[in-house]
Design goal:
The chain is an alpha/beta fold. Helices cover about 40% and strands about 15% of the residues. Keywords: Aminotransferase, Pyridoxal phosphate, Transferase.
Length: about 400
């Protein structure tokens, strides 16, 4: 912990939001920063959770502890609905209370002497949890990086995919990779992920692949690393119902650890992760899991995707706003995040200007890594009228 910088990004943003509200209580603040869902969970899903919860008050419906790995029916449903034709089995699916929690549980699999690589920019929890587990050196103010961690730059110049040469990405034990990416919104192509899998095989690496935004993909980009041949030998996948089903407060996610994935000594990784789940976790809420099953029913899935489409329309509105202002815009098509370039300005300066002049909360790009300098991340999670009002304010600011 001694090397970890004080102040995780999102609590810092919340603090600045609180301070702004105190100074401007009369202004309507618009939150396009932290990616928290805003639209109601479809009734078919909440009804399933309510029915399960009410049954707990009856002798016949009461249930106590469930399996630490998750409800068997839900594990099978995830494998069959979301990983059809990829060869994933129900026993390889571990249900949890969310992808972010699983990031830290996965860190327990590896000793503190393993080397780590992350996309730059990327979700801060990958780096912060690595530092907490002793894999990061001192933070270097000049570079904006922690020592002993490889930052794989992903920017427009390289199509948001890192240079995987051994010079740029030396032998690395664990590679964190998110697609569609948070914050850039970019979804890696089949050929890019094929190169990543091939690199992991030749390098002896394990990929921790975050597919939390897969439901937002609009084109033919892979929704899972397991669409790539051989990925089950090198990759663990984490995902979540948070953004696709509005479960940010309900809490439900999953991790897939294929039986084919082995350490260099041949021992199955799945056995170690199973032990960690049984030791450090008592299983996801049974009520949340009832909701997860409803999400994967035919009617529930359609309702869930309809809400996803609503957010994608919000993303389109935000992206078109900045495009019309002559700014470079990335993301939004395959993710609920829009990555906007403000050349020649620091991210925090732009964040402060937008907040002070338009009363809109955003996220400064450098919060996701040094490659985020000059960028701002906008979230598409919001009510339509709020997003339209934000568009109007931003057009007035930058016209």
């Amino acid at each position: 912990m001694e090397n970890l910088r004080s102040g995780y990004l999102f609590p810092e943003i919340s603090k600045r939001e609180f301070d702004h509200r105190q100074k401007h209580p009369q202004e309507k603040l618009i939150r396009l920063g932290i990616g928290d869902t805003t639209e109601p969970i479809p009734d078919i899903i909440t009804s399933a959770m309510a029915e399960y919860a009410l049954a707990l008050s009856t002798v016949g419906g009461y249930k106590g502890y469930g399996a630490e790995q998750g409800n068997k029916e839900l594990r099978v449903a995830i494998a069959e609905k979301l990983y059809r034709n990829m060869g994933i089995k129900g026993n390889e699916v571990f249900v949890s209370d969310g992808a972010q929690c699983d990031i830290s549980r996965l860190q327990m699999l590896f000793g503190s002497d393993v080397t780590v690589a992350v996309q730059d920019p990327s979700f801060p929890a990958y780096i912060d949890s690595s530092v907490i587990f002793g894999r990061g050196g001192k933070f270097e103010e000049e570079t904006g990086q922690y020592g002993n961690i490889t930052y794989m730059k992903c920017c427009p110049e390289n199509n948001f995919f890192p240079n995987l040469s051994t010079r740029n990405t030396p032998k690395t034990d664990v590679i964190f990779f998110c697609s569609p990416n948070n914050p850039t919104g970019n979804a890696a192509s089949y050929h890019q992920l094929k190169r990543l899998v091939e690199f992991a095989k030749s390098n002896g690496s394990i990929i921790i692949y975050d597919s939390s935004y897969a439901a937002f993909i609009s084109d033919h980009s892979p929704r899972s690393i397991y669409e790539i041949p051989g990925a089950k030998q090198v990759a663990i996948e984490i995902s979540s119902f948070s953004k696709c089903a509005g479960f940010t407060g309900v809490r439900l996610g999953w991790t897939i650890v294929p039986e084919e994935l082995r350490y260099s000594n041949g021992f199955p990784v799945i056995k170690d992760f199973d032990r960690i789940m049984c030791t450090c976790f008592n299983g996801a809420s049974s009520i949340s899991q009832a909701g997860g099953l409803a999400c994967l029913s035919e009617e529930g899935y359609k309702a869930m995707i309809a809400v996803v489409d609503y957010y994608k329309e919000n993303a389109k509105i935000i992206a078109e706003t900045f495009t019309s202002l002559g700014l470079k815009v990335y993301g939004g098509e395959n993710a609920p995040y829009i990555w906007v370039h403000f050349p020649g300005q620091t991210s925090w300066d732009v964040f402060t200007e937008i907040l002070s002049k338009t009363h809109i909360m955003t996220i400064p790009g450098t919060g996701f890594g040094p490659a985020g300098q000059e960028y701002i991340r906008f979230s598409a999670f919001g009510h339509r009228e709020t997003v339209l009002e934000a568009s109007r304010r931003l057009r007035n600011l930058y016209k």
